[in-house]
Task: structure prediction
Amino acid sequence: MQKPSIPKGTRDFSPQEMAKRNYIFATIQEVYHLYGYQQIETPAMESLSTLTGKYGEEGDKLLFKILNSGDCFDRITDEELQQRDPVKFALKSCEKGLRYDLTVPFARYVVQHRNDISFPFKRYQIQPVWRADRPQKGRYREFYQCDADVVGSDSLLNEVELIQIIDEVFRRFGIRVVIRINNRKILAGIAETIGESGRIADITVAIDKLDKAGLEGVNEELRSKGLQEQAIERLQPVIGLTGTNQEKLKELKRTLAASETGLKGVSELEFILGCLEHDRPGSVIKLDLTLARGLNYYTGAIFEVTASDVEIGSITGGGRYDNLTGVFGMEGVSGVGISFGADRIFDVLNQLSLYPDGSLQTTQLLFVNFGAEAAAGLLPLLRQMRSAGIRVELYPEAIRIKKQMSYADAKKIPYVALVGEDEMTEGRVKLKNMLDGAQRLLTPDELIAYLS
Result:
């Protein structure tokens, strides 16, 4: 019989791994709450009309499409089937798809519930998303995102606040990070300056791959998209711009002097970086002109975060989108958001062994079962301990003590309690430390105080 398996790019999580993941989610939630963000949820699947055309051509290819229930061939002719055109087949046989991210469903939510929302609206979501990507290290087909967005406000203080949130989350995790920042208006200004203003999408998609493909790989892709050699040559010094953030901004002012759009992007970054100078976050903030973020809906500041001590790619990203709700018929609602990649953060924390003691919420104490009558007599004590916040179990069967001890070892339970006839008579509990074997007799109140 064939052994069961799961699809490539997906993962099972053990109880220990889930404890780690819940620590990640709880940490991020706590910081979101500190800044006034409220939680919503949206469905796993959306109408394909909601999803398509929002992520660019490459993003649309990565959408998981869901076949219509019933007869999915109902609207397809035999001639169309023989053509074996996957795009045409999907258009007629799939009306829904799994969400690719949380931002587009959020935009749909805002438009659909516009009469129930007070603006500016600050929300967060922690839910899984799906992408038909090629699985590799740090890249999965099913993964969680932890998004925060604020819509209905043009203020750049929102960008500052989101960077503060990123900095605080990773400070709590103990992960050293670099927060890379850029602005899509600067990229549009660069395209305008090199004479390729109509090719901003091609340019940004290509230079966003600089880390993976290298400079020559980026240039080759630009050539394949039909950019002139002269334009590619004029792009090189901009991509390779070095120096401090202030030096880069100064040089950009000179380079983009003829581009009103480009200078507006420089001005926005000046404000954001100036505010952060006052706040002085612990993370490194780096102006990176190669940062493009491939999603077409970004229009202003964009962010991406990488871990300093682990090579795993981006672990957080986001940016400003000025009219995402416009595609759903609600014009002029500006927004900005970030997304923490929980699965990659999970991998980073594992590699760096950064989970703090007590964060995994394992059982603290196991009571040995000496029989039905003794077990029943322990129930009031178990209730008392749980009311005090102590995580405690009673072994369900009265089997050999050695086997019950093995259960405690397997679950990494640090203490075992033995309450036999003598202990029951004395009103005490024999507590055994599973690490060093030390034992002590304690009253119930002493036991609770000791474990608290």
